[in-house]
Design goal:
The structure holds 2 protein chains of 2 kinds. By secondary structure, chain A is mostly helical. Chain A has helices at 2-27, 36-40, 46-56, 62-74, 88-123, 128-142, 145-167, 189-227, 230-238, 242-254, 256-260, 262-279, 285-294, 298-326, and strands at 80-81, 86-87. Chain A is 76% helix and 1% strand. In chain A, a hairpin with a 4-residue loop joins strand 1 (80-81) and strand 2 (86-87). In chain A, helix 8 (189-227) crosses helix 12 (262-279). The radius of gyration of chain A is 25 Å and the shape is flat. The N and C termini of chain A lie close together (8 Å). Chain B is mostly helical. Chain B starts with a helix and ends in a 6-residue tail after the last helix. In chain B, strand 2 and strand 3 form a beta hairpin. In chain B, the strands form 3 sheets. In chain B, strands 1-2-3 form a 3-stranded antiparallel beta sheet, with no helix packed on it. In chain B, strands 4-7 form a two-stranded antiparallel sheet. Chain B has helices at 2-14, 22-32, 34-51, 53-56, 164-200, 202-217, 220-231, 237-242, 248-278, 282-289, 294-302, 307-330, 343-349, 367-388; strands at 79-81, 88-100, 107-119, 121-125, 131-133, 137-139, 141-145. The radius of gyration of chain B is 26 Å and the shape is elongated. Classes of the chains: A mainly alpha, B mainly alpha. Chains A and B meet through helix 1, helix 6, helix 7, helix 12 and helix 13 of A and helix 6, helix 7, helix 8, helix 12 and helix 14 of B.
Chain lengths: 333, 394
């Protein structure tokens, strides 16, 4: 197993280097010089600009700049944010963690909802409930995330205006914006955790919808295939109860491609989360990336591209390893 | 598909014993797929309506009235019952004027029945909202409209008082077309690079596959956002080199290219795999021993073999591109907002600062055509996949 992991990691290195090169070439599309805005600012001394010019190698051709940047990357230094006047790592850490919280919660929701739904509709194939589930899953696949978030926000507001007359209150049933309440800083650690979870509920559900729809359909197909196979008949004739057959025998095999898709799901979830983050003002990667692009703060943009690429690769690696664990037929030598 | 059906039916009745062509079989299979047929119908309807957007839309894409202003006006109520006689009459509307709510001091719109009825008239000429049908025929004929000073807003108005219904129709031209154009770009890129990689193998194959892996490694949304944010700036090096001003048409094509560039990898991978398995088949070897050139073997013998798979994956890629464009427009990186409209741009209006969606819910209406376009393309793609797959024939 360990040689397999090492081999996989070694295989990732050239791709990662290629991705850094691609990201750097894209960053060359920024008009003019990164330091233009700094030069115009009266607060920055000319010596500082000269020093920055030197350290980023802005006077040298782009491939030299790339190697300088790669060199500092290897020392875990992502460079300097021009607009924030602080290291890039300080700017991007928080948004990345916030986005991961959102994606993590929606991943949990995805599995918690999709697995029972998929098993249920396979066991009750062609029943009314199965048909409703498959109609709803088409709906979930087709509705754009950001639009769905907007519709849910509208529903939450409407729910309040319809029920307010009867219950006399002025609260929304779910928060529709931001990641924390205004009194967040005064809360205890557990209170903070609950507060963030509470705020993440709606956006995480929205991010998970298309995944739920897709995976329910895949799992249903897999389960139907498994349920008609011989070993299930054997299990039945042994007198095992249906529950055990469905969840212990059939699901274990049916879930294999399911595990394999985690890696493919991640970019979709991160991307889907991006637009939802904007709708609900979640302080995640995408809103910050957009700000950095507007400010042409190129090292922050590069930092986001590189770190998210790295996270994606790690995610894919983990799903490959999980697949090797789940599926005994895969040999890793 | 439709004219294929027309030409098929008479022939079938005359010569029953003649075997069916491939297209015939596929069409028959496709027809059995009810959901796909409905999806196809919705798509034909949507593309027709947006093609005739100028005619169907009562107002111009950017037409609005300064005074009296019509910002955030809710959808106009259409009356069918004549208040005097209490009987059914031709549809009419009342003029609507803005007023202040006496209690909350908020702006509200109230109907003014005392100004008389404004019947909805059909096939009227409005020189203020002239348009070019298919970009060729200048016209100012509109399907319906009402006399000034009343205005008919079927789906309400946005923050500037522009008609949402008209803008949805015009927006469809951008949102629906971008999917189709981008899919052609990724089709050619995917076909070319996938074909070359599969046919030549070796180092060429390695390089192409690595490039695809690298593009795939960066999360798609961030790549999309970054590329379109940087390329739309007219001062970027590429625009400078080619002397582009990045006007709205150039931004449009830039976005199409970026979408196509991000999307071609998957298709190339699949085509490569198919070619790898096919180039050792007998018919490829036969063509080679007959002296066919390499490009002839690729284009005439190998690629047609991948056709059914390619058609399906292209159809299923279109909704992704539509989603990509609306998403980009939604965050303000889509086609220029000044002289075009797009469903994503319109949904962006609903999130603008200081807007509470509960008071202007009609601003969310542009999301509905996005939903139906994506749903229908998915249904048609699924139907095609089943129809083209011999194992799934019924």
């Amino acid at each position: 197993m360990i040689p397999y992991i090492i081999r996989r990691i070694i295989h990732l290195i050239p791709t990662f280097i290629g991705a850094t090169l691609l990201a750097f070439i894209i960053s060359q599309l920024v008009p003019g010089d990164f330091l233009n805005s700094m030069r115009l600012s009266p607060d920055v001394r000319p010596e500082t600009i000269a020093r920055l010019e030197q350290s980023f190698g802005l006077d040298k051709p782009w491939y030299t700049q790339y190697f300088l940047w790669m060199g500092s990357l290897l020392r875990f230094d992502l460079g300097q944010s021009f607009s924030g006047n602080q290291p890039v790592s300080a700017v991007i850490t928080k948004p990345i963690i916030n986005s991961l919280i959102l994606v993590g919660i929606s991943l949990i929701m995805l599995y918690a909802v999709a697995i029972p739904l998929g098993v249920f509709s396979a066991v009750r194939q062609y029943s009314v409930a199965d048909q409703i589930i498959s109609a709803v899953s088409y709906f979930g696949l087709a509705i754009p995330n950001f639009f769905f978030a907007q519709v849910l926000i509208l529903c939450i507001f409407l729910f309040r205006s319809f029920t307010r007359e009867y219950f006399d209150y002025n609260q929304l049933i779910l928060p529709v914006a931001q990641m924390t309440s205004s009194n967040y800083d005064t809360l205890t650690a557990f209170g903070k955790f609950k507060d963030v979870l509470w705020h993440a509920l709606m956006p995480a559900f929205v991010v998970a919808t298309s995944g739920i729809a897709g995976l329910t359909r895949i799992l249903r197909g897999q389960m139907i295939e498994q349920l008609s196979s011989d070993y299930i008949r054997t299990a039945r004739s042994k007198g095992l109860d249906e529950r055990k057959i469905n969840y212990k025998h059939a699901l274990r095999i049916a879930i294999i491609p399911f595990v394999a898709t985690i890696g493919a799901l991640l970019p979709g979830l991160i991307g889907g989360a991006g637009l939802v983050e904007i709708v609900v003002s979640w302080p995640g990667i995408t809103p910050t990336l957009l700000q950095a692009l507007t400010a042409q703060d190129i090292y922050v943009v590069l930092g986001f591209l590189i770190i998210s690429t790295l996270l994606l690769m790690i995610g894919n690696l983990i799903s490959d390893l999980l697949l090797a664990v789940v599926d005994p037929r895969i040999r890793y030598n | 598909m439709a004219d294929a059906a027309k030409s098929l039916t008479p022939r079938k009745s005359k010569q029953v014993e003649r075997s069916k062509s491939q297209a015939q079989i596929v069409w028959e299979q496709f027809r059995k797929h009810k959901a796909a047929l409905i999806g196809g119908g919705i798509l034909i309807f949507m593309y027709l309506v947006t093609a005739f957007a100028g005619f169907i839309a009562p107002y111009g894409i950017n037409e609005y009235r300064r005074r009296p202003a019509t910002d955030f006006q809710p959808p106009t109520k259409i009356h069918w019952i004549d208040p005097d006689t209490g009987r059914l009459t031709r549809p009419f509307i009342y003029n609507v004027v803005s007023d202040r709510d006496p209690v909350t001091r908020q702006k509200v719109y109230v109907e003014k029945p005392e100004e008389g009825k404004f019947p909805i008239r059909f096939f009227i000429n409005r020189p203020e909202a002239s348009y070019k049908l298919f970009g060729l025929f200048e016209s100012d004929l509109h399907l319906f409209g009402v006399d000034e000073p009343a205005r008919i807003f079927l789906w309400g108005t946005n923050n500037l008082g522009k008609d949402v219904f008209s803008r949805v129709l015009y927006g469809g031209q951008v949102s629906l077309m971008i999917g189709i154009i981008a899919v052609w770009i990724s089709f050619f890129l995917g076909l070319f690079f996938g074909g070359v990689a599969g046919f030549y193998g070796g180092i060429v194959d390695d390089i192409i596959m690595r490039i695809i892996e690298i593009i795939d490694a960066i999360p798609g949304l961030f790549l999309l956002i970054t590329l379109s944010a940087l390329l739309r700036d007219p001062r970027n090096p590429i625009a400078q080199t080619f002397g582009l001003k990045m006007n709205s048409a150039q931004v449009f094509f830039m976005i199409v290219l970026v979408l196509g560039f991000i999307g071609w990898g998957g298709l190339a991978r699949v085509i490569r795999g198919q070619i790898l398995s096919m180039r050792e088949l007998d018919y490829a070897n036969a063509a080679k021993s007959l002296g066919a050139s390499e490009s002839r073997i690729i284009w005439r013998h190998l690629l047609p073999g991948t056709a059914s798979y390619v058609i399906v994956s292209l159809t299923l890629a279109i909704p992704g591109f539509i989603l990509g464009e609306t998403g980009l427009s939604f965050i303000g990186l889509g086609p220029s907002e000044v002289d075009t409209s797009s469903w994503g741009i319109m949904l962006r209006d609903a999130t603008a600062r200081g807007i509470s969606i509960q008071f202007v819910p009609w601003l969310l209406l542009p999301g509905i055509p996005i939903f139906f376009a994506i749903l229908s393309w998915n249904l048609v793609g699924d139907g095609l996949r089943d129809a083209l797959d011999p194992k799934k024939r019924r």
